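Case 704 in the screening queue. Each case pairs one protein sequence with one candidate compound; here the compound is magnesium ion. For every case the pipeline is the same: read the inputs, emit a complex structure as tokens, and attach any notable structural observations.

Predict complex for case 704.
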Amino acid sequence: MSRRTPSFATASPADPGAAPVASLPGVGPALQQALQRLGLERVQDLWFHLPLRYEDRTRITPIRDLRVGDHAQVEGVVEAVERGFRYRPQLRVAIADDSHATLTLRFFHFNRAQAEQFAPGARMRCFGEVRHGAHGPEMVHPEYRRVLGTTPLPTEERLTPVYPTTEGLGQKRLGGVIARALERLPEEAALELIPDALRAPLRLASLREALLTVHAPPPQADVAAFARGRHPAQQRLAFEELLTHHLGLKRLRAQVRRHAAPVLRGDGALRAALRAQLPFALTAAQQRVTAEIEHDLARPEPMLRLVQGDVGSGKTVVAALAALAAIEAGCQVALAAPTELLAEQHWRTFDSWLRPLGLAPVWLSGRVLGRARTAALAAVADGAPVVIGTHALMQEGVVFHRLGLAIIDEQHRFGVHQRLALRDKGRSGDSVPHQLVLTATPIPRTLAMAAYADLDVSVIDELPPGRTPVQTVAIANARRGEVIERIRAACAEGRQAYWVCTLIEESEQLEAQAAEVAFAELTTALPELRIGLVHGRLKPKEKQAAMDAFKAGETRLLVATTVIEVGVDVPNASLMIIENAERLGLAQLHQLRGRVGRGSAASSCVLLYQQPLSQLARARLEVMRETSDGFRIAEKDLELRGPGELLGTRQTGQLAFRVADLARDAHLLPAVQRVGEALLRDHPELAERLIARWIGGAARYAGA
Ligand code: ADP
Ligand code: MG
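Case 704 output:
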């Protein structure tokens, strides 16, 4: 993503934050470039580049005490090493410690030198996430160091922050440069942007202290409070981040409202033709939302509408009707989805609906290359009525003839900026296209304001008739064998099943590895079944092939990561197993479960969990068994979260906040709104500076 470089003209001793990162000792061109990829250009960008989570290397955990899901440090002696090749090369190392328990280390990528370090008898210090393995606890690709001689390695004194980073920039280097930037942190008075009068009643911690604390929690820090994001330092920053976000959206909305948009008021012929051809009638909710959209489209100012509807509520046909309204009025429509899988599914659906109307949609994704790409781009420039694809639609080189409506599915996977990029494709003079955003993430009203302050919201609060409710059960992993038998039985009856491997991690790679491990296990356990595998690390072609084979019924069981969370639609799949279900938030479980129950067969969902269950996890699984109503689930989610997120986990798919968490920090929102309004009214210049600080490229909003 390109960002305008902020002006450094203001860099001065009085404003050390505005200096470029290159002014820090040890930051050469290579490091500067890596930092730039993270959007870190000024010293203050480093101050506000906050840890994603913390790792606790302050102590060594006896292997016996390891709990699945923990990130832990252990030290033990190598007892056995096994190099194998089953499906792919593997290195398995068993280490044992004084607690007389054994831990398996598992590597899929290793070179000979690495393998040789694990000689029986060698003492190793490892850090990694504990997983459930076939022979007790396991770590996949842990960090490790050999402990030589008798001098023990020192343990760390502080929690280790883990920063969001980029390929080629390690945690140590990034942490080092952030520490150097923090040495330039000015006194409180020069740093604080929220006026005293607004801040005092909230009793917020000092910003300077808060920053120093979150980057390097003191040794006596309350580890549990940090893990939950409840430490006063984190809350201080969460408040400021939420405030900034709120200000940014408010400003965006005000700016959007100043634009004009094409008046899209067609004769209704295409819409009537589609409706006549559908094998079903619209639900009352679909009709109401369609009417709201049509009303917006017919106005000379840009629509900015979010359609929220539970999984399976039928958002696609609502989007299609909106598209036809725009086409009737002579405009082009773009539909973007966040994954190749989902985008292609939309393309197929739209193709089946619109081709009979003489409107075959154009397909454009990152893997449309060469001549096909040239042809697609030419068609778009020439005025093709509908273009469907991935973020490729938002990239340079895509030029529309007359884009009147931009539709984005599953908006939480795109940022506001990507949405704007697509909209900007349709700019002409002062006129911008209308925007329609679809999301299946049910958000309680209180949060909708904060999350989507720049959008109007329509809700499809009704499911089409004839859905079979999904029966949900929670089963301990110890009874995995029974679950596998269940798959065997379901597939023998001609049905299909998903096996979903979940791992909340910053690493897609680990999740992919978990899926490969499960795939190997299931292939052995169910030799009579054809089993597919799909995860985020596969090439798009391989991914698509795996999906196609499953859709066509060639594979009966699909082992997948959460890449299938959104939009995948295979009606014959009536059984879903979700592994490590206890680790997922309710919203994500609900999304996943929505992949079954789409056909007429009675469907079920098995939530496979690792014991022991925390109280929170137990409550979540209970909610899933009780209800399938997305809004009820979302409200329960809010109630339940807050008190107990695991160390380092962060609900994926949420807005990309650095420290704030909408559910956990919902209690801050009323104050955020109050302070936000006062700032915009009385100190707009401070609002600008806050936005520049947290959002960095203030320029990105400027064009809105
Ligand atoms: P989502 O809101 O999750 O995107 P979809 O648009 O994919 O849901 O719709 C789910 C399924 O329901 C599709 O197979 C779609 O054709 C079907 N569907 C949509 N609206 C209706 C309706 N009013 N009656 C019956 N089936 C419908
Ligand atoms: Mg959908």
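Case 704 observations:
- Residues 483 and 606 are 8 Å apart (CA to CA).
- Confidence is low (pLDDT under 50) at residues 1-12, 642-655, 697-704.
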